[in-house]
Amino acid sequence: MEIRAAVVDSFDRPPRYRPFDLPAPTDEDHALVDVLAVGLHPRVRTGASGRHYTSTGRLPMVPGVDGVGRRADGTAVYFVADDDLVGPMATRTVIDTRRSIPLPEGTDPVRIAAAMNPAMSSWVALRRRVPLRPGQSVLVLGATGNAGRMAVQVAGRLGAGRVVGAGRDPERLAALPGLGADATVALTADADATAAALAEAAAEVDVVLDYLWGEPAAAAMSALLRARSDRSRTLDWVQIGSVAGPSLDLPSVLLRSADLRLRGNGQGAVSTRAYLAELPSLIEEIDHGRLAVPARTAPLADVETVWTAPEAPGVRTVLLP
Ligand SMILES: NC(=O)c1ccc[n+]([C@@H]2O[C@H](COP(=O)([O-])OP(=O)(O)OC[C@H]3O[C@@H](n4cnc5c(N)ncnc54)[C@H](OP(=O)(O)O)[C@@H]3O)[C@@H](O)[C@H]2O)c1
């Protein structure tokens, strides 16, 4: 079947909107959907550049990690893309129905497409990786991006007693108390001032959700652990994103001198089954308007220009076929 899709023909060029031959579903668990909305998440860009750790290297490819579609019987579904099938950035695609959830009548496809990927990172981290106990406190490191802002809200929704958001952009940092942050910390070029502010606001937190990694995460680890009143009290550090660097220099003393528990949250660290189990409750949170979802839309046909245009900071782009 001929469809139109955002097609990556080369990993060093943006996808091009062009005709594409969609193979018919062959498996009884596969179903054809009309695509309604697809989020342009950072993970989508990494996948389309061939650099994600799950990349197969096969070309041409249709990018996307998730989306909202309508099945032949009229049901709207949220679906998680399957690497072995054509991706969601297309007018129509084939989904694995086992990786899809029917959406309640009247659900806004744009909100779901914009929010599920950034919100899932903290939702799954705090429910599966380090199940949050009521009253525990959380630091979101890198709280000014889409996923970080969601993490601030999700931590509150899941019963955190205190939520601290740390990030660079002063304007988006100032908006975090309105989303439930009890305190904010500015990550600035002044390393000593940043360390002191982190120590004051967050030395006693139970969990860190880290979207940064790299040098700022290493500095934050050191600042928090040095200032912690009881270093043998566990600090769960959940590595989720790496916008500040793919690796960090971790002094061994930090692991010996405190109970620092380091883990990650992402595809592989959590099984597909566990992710799927979390979808309905998160969809309900988003659908009921309990999480703020800044989104803007653009036609899928404009994918090539949207791809290279500057992003509106803190706002997720959703492509509409
Ligand atoms: N593992 C998972 O399940 C999962 C799920 C979703 C996202 N992620 C990852 O999480 C990260 C964030 O995703 P997102 O959707 O929030 O992206 P996003 O909306 O593009 O936000 C990224 C934010 O990072 C901030 N930033 C960049 N470099 C920084 C630095 N050196 N120090 C402090 N802040 C910095 C930027 O804000 P300023 O420029 O204002 O500082 C930007 O707002 C990405 O690495 C993504 O791949 C992981």
Describe the structure in your own words.
The protein has helices at residues 42-48, 109-129, 146-157, 170-174, 191-202, 214-227, 252-256, 272-287, 303-308; strands at residues 2-7, 16-21, 30-39, 66-71, 76-80, 92-96, 100-102, 137-141, 162-167, 183-186, 207-210, 235-239, 260-264, 295-299, 316-320. It is of the alpha/beta class and 321 residues long. The chain has 2 domains: 2-103 and 291-320, Quinone Oxidoreductase, Chain A, domain 1 (Alpha-Beta Complex), CATH 3.90.180; 117-264, Rossmann fold (3-Layer(aba) Sandwich), CATH 3.40.50.720. Strands 3, 4, 5, 6, 7, 14 and 15 form a 7-stranded mixed beta sheet that branches. Bound molecules: NADP nicotinamide-adenine-dinucleotide phosphate (NAP). Residues 41-43, 117-118, 121, 142, 144-148, 167-169, 172, 187, 211-212, 216, 240-244, 265-266, 313-314 line the site of NADP nicotinamide-adenine-dinucleotide phosphate. Residues 41-43, 117-118, 121, 142, 144-148, 167-169, 172, 187, 211-212, 216, 240-244, 265-266, 313-314 line the site of NADP nicotinamide-adenine-dinucleotide phosphate (NAP).
**What name does the CATH topology of the largest domain carry?**
Rossmann fold
Known CATH architecture of the largest domain: 3-Layer(aba) Sandwich
Give the % helix. Answer: 25-40%
Structural class: alpha/beta
Principal-axis shape equals elongated
CATH fourth-tier homologous superfamily of the largest domain: NAD(P)-binding Rossmann-like Domain
Which ranges are low-confidence, i.e. pLDDT below 50, for 5 or more consecutive residues?
none
What oligomeric arrangement do these chains adopt? single chain
Tally the structural domains: 2
DSSP strand count: 15
**H-E string:** EEEHEEEEHEHEHEHEHEHEHEHE
Bound molecules: NADP nicotinamide-adenine-dinucleotide phosphate
**The level-1 CATH class of the largest domain:** Alpha Beta
Average pLDDT works out at 96
Strand content: 15-25%
Number of helices: 9
Gyration radius from CA atoms, angstroms = 20 Å
**What is the terminal-to-terminal distance?**
16 Å
Largest beta sheet, briefly?
7 strands, mixed
